[in-house]
Amino acid sequence: FAADYISLGIREPVYEVVEVKANGSVSTEKISRRQLLKSSGLRLRDTRSVDPSLWLMNSMPSLLVREQAILLNLGSLRAIAMHERVLIFNYNSPGGKVFLELLRPRLNPRNINGGPAMPFQLEVVEAALLSRIQRLERRLMHVEPRVAALLEVLPNRLTGDVLEQLRLSKQSLVELGSRAGDLKQMLIDLLEDPHEIRRICIMGRNCTLDKVSDDMECAVPLEKQVAEEEEEEIEMLLENYLQRCESCHGQAERLLDSAREMEDSIAVNLSSRRLEVSRVELLLQVGTFCVAVGALIAEEYSA
């Protein structure tokens, strides 16, 4: 594989990533694409969704499940989760920082409260979804009071500053609604594909999926039981985040509709004012014409 890069005269990409292991240890390392593919069992095309150099090409959120890894592309968070570790690209991005803040406490045994620990890859997936949802909710909490305040003063207070704030708020809502909508669709697609959920459940276990029935087959019956229970947990987890995402998306759309209605009201208000100005101008023109005619008549009689 490396020889192919050399023969083509292409420099093999090297990624700087943060590695978080299941025991909670964190380290920064540099890993070549060849090493990444070998250690994760991925193919070259799989890494496109998390490759930082292809940022603009992979803006849509995605959660791709492969045999030995889960590829996460959620906003500025790009990561590859495996059975015992996760590699985080762009770890200094807002999404990467929030993800690390949420993941590390979850790996601390003291925070389990005596309950059974979730598999590491599920902890990673939940922390990733939670970090993305929380960022969207915070944006909504930031823009919502601003829009509400603008709707109170408009359309009575039509100043350039207020109209500019309305434009910026509307732009923020469009972006927020788009991102929440994309994440919602990703969750819906995942929930409608039980095969992908089962692939997550058997990761790291001596289990396979029947090619015909798609049922889980495990060497140890207990592992099958645990995997089936995890399948239900994953579905409940995804449903929970789907509801939160739907709430965020719906509220953003409602605020955007209100802002658009206010823009329409402002347009009608301005149109009414323009008509009033035109009416006054017409009256002035008529008055001027009458004065001119009167002056002309007076001049004729005086002559």
UniProtKB/TrEMBL annotation:
Cellular compartments annotated: Membrane; Plastid, Chloroplast membrane
GO MF annotations, alphabetized: magnesium ion transmembrane transporter activity
Chief location category: membrane
GO CC annotation terms, alphabetical: chloroplast membrane
Domain of life: Eukaryota
Protein keywords: Chloroplast, Ion transport, Magnesium, Membrane, Plastid, Transit peptide, Transmembrane, Transmembrane helix, Transport
Bilayer disposition of the protein: Multi-pass membrane protein
Function: Magnesium transporter that may mediate the influx of magnesium in chloroplast.
Family: Belongs to the CorA metal ion transporter (MIT) (TC 1.A.35.5) family.
PANTHER family from the UniProt entry: MAGNESIUM TRANSPORTER MRS2 HOMOLOG, MITOCHONDRIAL (PTHR13890:SF0), RNA SPLICING PROTEIN MRS2, MITOCHONDRIAL (PTHR13890)
Protein's name according to its UniProt entry: Magnesium transporter
Lineage: Eukaryota, Viridiplantae, Streptophyta, Embryophyta, Tracheophyta
